[in-house]
Amino acid sequence: MSASTVTQKSTAGPATAPHTLVAEFASADALVRACEQVRNAGYTRWDAHSPYPVHGIDRAIGIRATRLPVLIFLCGATGTTIGVLLQWWTNAVNAGVQFPWVPTFLQGYNFIISGKPYWSFPANIPVIFELTILLSAFGAFFGMLALNGLPQHYNPLLRLDRFRRVTDDRFFISIGLDDPKYGSATRRLLEGAGAAAVEIADDVKESAPPRWFLRAHVMLACFLLIPLAVIAYMRVDKQSQPRIHIVQDMDNQERYTAGKQMANDVFADGRSARPKIAGTLAREDFTQDPHYYQGRVGDQWATGIPMYHPELQRLAGGAAEVNEQLMRRGRDRYAIFCSHCHGLDGAGAGRVATYVVQREIGFVPPKSYADPDVLVRPVGHLFNTITNGIRTMAPHGDQIPVADRWAIVAYVKALQRAQAATIEDVPTEQRSRMTQPK
Amino acid sequence: MASIVHDRDNTIETPGRRAPLVTGGHDLHGVTEVVCRVAESRSAPGAWYLTMGVSAALLAALGAMIGYLFFEGVGVWGLNNPVGWGFDITNFVFWVGIGHAGTLISAILYLFRQKWRTGINRFAEAMTIFAVMCAGLFPGIHIGRVWLAFYLFPLPNQMAMWPNFRSPLLWDVFAVGTYFTVSLLFWYMGLIPDLATLRDRAKTKLSAFLYGLFSMGWTGSARHWHRYERAYLILAALSTPLVLSVHSVVSFDFATSVLPGWHTTIFPPYFVAGAIFSGFAMVVMLAIPCRALFGLKDLITLRHLDNMNKVILATGLMVGYAYTTEFFVAWYSGSAWELFAFKARAMGPWWWSYWIMFSCNVFVPQIFWFRWARTSIPVMLVVSVLVNVGMWFERFVIIVTSLSTDFLPSAWDTYWPTWVEAWTMAGSFGLFFFMFGLFCKFLPMVAISEVKAVLPHDAHAGGAGGHGH
Question: What is the pLDDT at residue B9?
């Protein structure tokens, strides 16, 4: 144990100078005891090395507790903050409207999903939690490396063959030759403390990296800038060709074009240009037959029902004038679409109307069709009322086919006639029934 | 000194004496030798070559299947309405679950000062990383338009379009991403001192360069160890809630939906217990061949396996308890849909998968009540394989039965995987074993410096009895 060897290593490589004194110990206990002695002797630029963390060595060397936990806490707090702000900004504020100065690519967008609130903390906790952990872990790992000065791929100690056993089964103390206390006594101190061997590790004198190494790095850095430069150029450049479309998605699909009159086996008739579906209106229908479709003749309301139209004739059972069949159709549609407001008799006391009047909901009840204003309306105007609505009455054009609207108009006319009727209008043989006492 | 008998069989509990964590009387150098021998020898056991060959072939199949999937679209899988999740998410949850044992062993057992973890933590952590890689693969490829996968992340873009942070699927991205990153850091940090050992023993230039590069110039300095241990402890403290959160978040994918059989608050704890259960089974399954093939029986001792089998038994009981509670709550809730969903699991068209799950996870591990079973290699090999089968089926049962028979009978339909899905799953095992094989051969499989720290103190004082027994 006491017989120590002192060797000065000479290598054939670059010029070297002594750098660190290294003493080897056989056991952890010996190391801890020696450390206490070195510390008591007042050395400052020294360290101990062991294959595993030795119990009690921190005290023996006098290592102060690391500030790493504080660093990790700060990293974690940053993670929490990022988690909160990221989610709030991207999901909970409409940054485009509230903060128009923010560039588009940084703007958030508060979109509604399943009616959930934009900002509901329980739903945001998982991401905040994970980011806190992630950044704390970065703090722990990279903070440990940074405080330890790692990576440090060159270390004079590693030039010593003997020192290689530090990761296997030997324990070492290294004292820098630049330690103010370093002197001839140092070696004796270590030997006295039980060192199995003491040796000096050399450092290469010329520490500047070779020229080619620098050049290679400059070139590499330049090459790495190329993609960035291309991206920057592409962002300001204008191209006449569309961008390269690698993934087509569904942008360019095969399709049947009507203009080319392509055969199509999807339909029984083999045509890809499809005929008009019954009931659809072409734009020109409105201009070509305004009487039937709009109830207008020239710039006046039409005064007659357009019985020339085949659809109306179909409702009238083929007849070219208003007949009972058309009236029955009209009464039928009227009962469905109008009576709940206007009442079956057209006097304006439908269920809806009476209900809202009772409840004082603020609904204007419909006038009676016998109202003098309404009595004088031409049929074209009535047709237009059904189609487009009037004042507070909503349009019904999208619910009732055109021919049916005309049938309703005919029926409304009949109701008006009935509302404004006198005893003269009743056939003579029926009059006695009307005057009978109840 | 301990008697030879005790050294051989450290599963025997003798009052007044601690069972050794390392058998065979190794000193510091002996431990180095045992572990580094594997990485340093120029050849490997025949079984290693065989495993690598088979898993490389499966890995190639995985590549082919993924290529085919990307080219043709997700239609090559058997997914359709109403079963929109099948093998893909089953495998995802299965692999994430496997990944939980590593961090549990390295972090939670570390905080509880369970020193026996040093023999197996490295290996379990490596397993975690490869399992999480396999797990991350599946959601990644199942999204349909993979070239838009970056939408998963909150990247600034001209469309002002951001992920929906109120969705558990997005929480998954953050949870699994964080878990992978933190596990990798934790694992790599543990590796640094051991890589330095390999660097210092390196015979070839290439290995000296590579091990040197990754060991970052570690010299075992006491000041470095001080910060290193602090960082390690804090990482362990961070990983512990992390590991619990990850599988909880995975379970939210199901629990926050309204589907009968998914919409249950028991899911987070039940998923975490299941994850630990399957993860430990996987560690045992991998440890058995590795310790035999690479001569690590002195470091990964029978006592380690015994302990892990106890964890399997305990978590297996928890899982069984959860299965029963689910049924009870389905009945007790009075919700007809819920009760129906569970009856359909046990007695519906998928009854066989339910009963594979139940028997493998609840009945089979009961054998570990017996010491002879916990210390018998063939028994634990069979049990660990069956537990993994059972845990795979657990995810399958949850996903497929609930999706295939939900509220409206008119919407019910069944699911059957296509050959592409089957090969993708086999391929994920190829990826896992391939990576694990590389790890076994080229990296220290056991945490050398940590084992040295728990060696009995007097074994290395004064360099007792030569090197390498």
Answer: 64
* Interface-testing mutation among B31, B106, B225, with chain A (most A C-beta atoms within 10 A): B225
Determine contact: A97 vs chain B, CB below 8 A: no
Residue A309 pLDDT class (50, 70, 90 cuts): confident
Residue A10: the pLDDT is 47
User: Chain A residue closest to B250 (CA)?
Assistant: A126
pLDDT band per the 50, 70, 90 thresholds, residue B422: very high
Q: What is the pLDDT of residue B463?
A: 37
- For residue A205, give every residue at least 6 positions away whose Cβ sits within 8 Å of its Cβ, in sequence order, or none: A14, A15, A16, A17
Rg (C-alpha) for chain B, rounded Å, is: 23
- Would you give the DSSP letter of residue B81? S
- Which of A133, A162, A234 to probe by mutation at the B interface, max B CB count within 10 Å? A133
Chain A residues in contact with B220 (beta carbon < 8 A): 49-52, 166-167, 172
CB-based contact (8 Å) between B32 and chain A? yes
Does residue A400 belong to the interface with chain B, where contact is any CB pair within 8 Å?
no
Own/partner pairs, A53-60, CB within 8 angstroms, 24+ separation: A53/B222, A53/B225, A53/B226, A53/B228, A53/B229, A53/B449, A53/B453, A54/A28, A54/A171, A54/B222, A54/B225, A55/A28, A56/A32, A57/A28, A57/A31, A57/A32, A57/B222, A57/B225, A58/B222, A58/B226, A60/A32, A60/A33, A60/A35, A60/A36
d(CA A262, CA A393): 47
Question: Region B286-305: what's the mean pLDDT?
Answer: 88
Q: Could you give the CA distance from residue B468 to residue B452 in angstroms, rounded to a whole number? A: 14
Name the residue among A48, A134, A168 with its Cβ closest to that of B28.
Answer: A168
pLDDT in tens, A350-369: 888 888 878 777 777 888 88
Query: How many CB pairs below 8 Å do chains A and B form together?
Result: 219
Under 8 Å between Cβ of B84 and B259: no
Contacts of A164 in chain B (CB under 8 A): 200-201
Q: How many residues does chain A have?
A: 438
Distance separating alpha carbons of residues A23 and A42, to the nearest angstrom: 17
Q: Is A87 on the interface with B (CB under 8 A)?
A: yes
Beta strands in A42-104 (DSSP E): 46-49
A204: left (phi over 0), alpha (psi -120 to 50) or beta: beta
Q: CA nearest B241 in A: which residue?
A: A133
Which of A58, A107, A153 comes nearest B226 by C-beta?
Answer: A58
pTM here? 0.75
**DSSP string across A220-266:** HHHHHHHHHHHHHHHHH---SSPPP----TTSS-----GGGT-B-TT
Max distance between CA atoms of chain A, in angstroms, equals 150
Q: Distance (Å, rounded) from C-alpha A61 to C-alpha A171?
A: 14
In chain B, which residues have their Cβ closer than 8 Å to the Cβ of A169? 27-29, 32, 460
| Nearest residue of chain B to residue A148 (CA atoms) | B224
Mean pLDDT of the A382-404 span: 90
With a CB-CB cutoff of 8 Å, which residues 123-152 of chain B face chain A?
145, 147
Average pLDDT of chain A, as a whole number: 85
pLDDT band at B434 (very low <50, low <70, confident <90, very high): very high
Q: Which chain B residues in 307-336 lie under 8 Å from chain A, judged by CB atoms? A: none
Burial B298-327 (b: 16+ CB within 10 A, else e): bbbbbbbbbbbbebbbbbbbbbbebbeebb
Helix (H, G, I), strand (E, B) or coil at A213: helix
pLDDT digits (tens, 9 = 90+) for B38-93: 888 888 888 999 999 999 999 999 999 999 999 888 999 999 888 999 999 999 99
Residue A203 main-chain phi, psi, to 5 deg: -120, 145
Q: Tell whether A63 is within 8 A of chain B (Cβ).
A: yes
